[in-house]
## 1
Amino acid sequence: MSIRILLVDDHTVVRQGLRMFLSLDTDLEVIGEAADGVEAIEQAHRLQPDVVLKGP
């Protein structure tokens, strides 16, 4: 069973880097991305992630 993650950051490059880093662990699955808080809330309701990870 993998941990389902929603990535949130306003910089596309940061989200891409986090996705690449997290993809190295087979127990983690990035199920979505959001660029701001409003989008993050919408995605979280729709996707039901286990974890919401905000970039630096």
## 2
Amino acid sequence: MGGAAYTASKHGVVGYTKHLASVYSSKGVKVNAIAPGTIRTPLTAEMLKTRPTNKIPLDRFGNDYEVAELAVFLASDESQFMNGAVVPIDGGYTIV
């Protein structure tokens, strides 16, 4: 059942992002979400040493700075026409 709760919460984030984007866009507020895959951080580094990457098309885990760069992009004027988007950053995991 843990998988069901996880899946439901992910779908909730997607729906909530789209709802907030539709409500606040008329006020000039953009709402987008980042959907990270497995990301190497100081907290996960030890655990990831034994975890395989063969199910990730790019054959590696993401790095924290890559997620940070996406966040900076979404907060910048470069993304001014993006609203209600859920952007995966998962090395292609969700395409398989």
